Amino acid sequence: MSRKQRANTARKLAVGPVGPTAAQVMSAIASSKPKKSKKPKSSAPPQAVNTSLLKSVCSLTDPFCEDARGAKYPDINQARTLPYSGRALYTLSTDSTGYGSVVLYPALKFAYLPANGGSTAAASYYSAGVEVFTLPQASKYRMVSCGWRLSAASAPLYQQGVVSVRMFSGHTGFLETGIPVQSYNCPMAKDIPLQSVHNTKLISLKTSINATDFTVPTEEQTTYSPDTWLDPEWTWFVVSVVGGPVSSGALSIEFFYNMEVMFDITNAISQLVTPSAPMKPHALSLAQQVSQEVGPIVVEGAKDIGTLLLTTAKRRIKDSLSKSFENAMFP
Q1: Which helix (H) or strand (E) is 53 found in, with range?
Q2: pTM for this model (two decimals)
Q3: 2.60.120.20, 1.10.443.10, 2.60.40.420, 1.20.1250.20: which CATH number matches 51-314?
């Protein structure tokens, strides 16, 4: 055997036979086993709901909740005011045909306009506005939130007919003597059987950027002529009972008015005013989103408005937190 042949033989013995070694086989078996998938860790922080922000949003969107009592509007206004939450009860009566109608108006000097003659379902004529909340010493005021709760007041056996709810505003409204109470030509309309009207909630919404300006109560109109135009810069409602029981108490209407009130500096009550609420643009933006999503008319039984508004506000706040985090991470 030559020197070259002996070198080749020694090389073959050192390398071993052609094919995978034992270590390679064990490595292949290990790699073929299914691996447990690991859940990717979220880089987003836990979305804890800001309790203070949630209360601010609820106080602006839900006039029936406890947070709305004593609430102030969190804008740039720096005036010292006194929060005032008015509660009142009105009973809508019907005539001999089972018809009755009332205008629910978000104002301090008058809160409603009852029907005055012309008791037909096609058109109503209303008398002078009625002042429910008497604050004769108030120099200025503004609405923070406003709503009404409807409930059938007659005995269940006599709860016949339909309750027609129509929402209007100054931009889509009508002259005081020509409100089409049964028309669907309005931003929101709903017809509810009287027997199903239990805790039905109506919420007034802002229709203008001037809705939060302070108003002088003495400058508000309380008497009307046929050409009076209704425009409080908040939505207002016409509630009518059609074909209902002939009763002096067919429908119960509760008023929930949450306001900020100002007094002249010479008035002793002005010593009770407190500083304005801090500016919260985030709360104002979220409140607008919640109001648009929930809507102004909620019939209980289908949805509980308190739970609905609270849940919607929480979800909107969480969404805003997620967007804020994404914008910070990926500008």
Answers
A1: helix 51-61
A2: 0.74
A3: 2.60.120.20
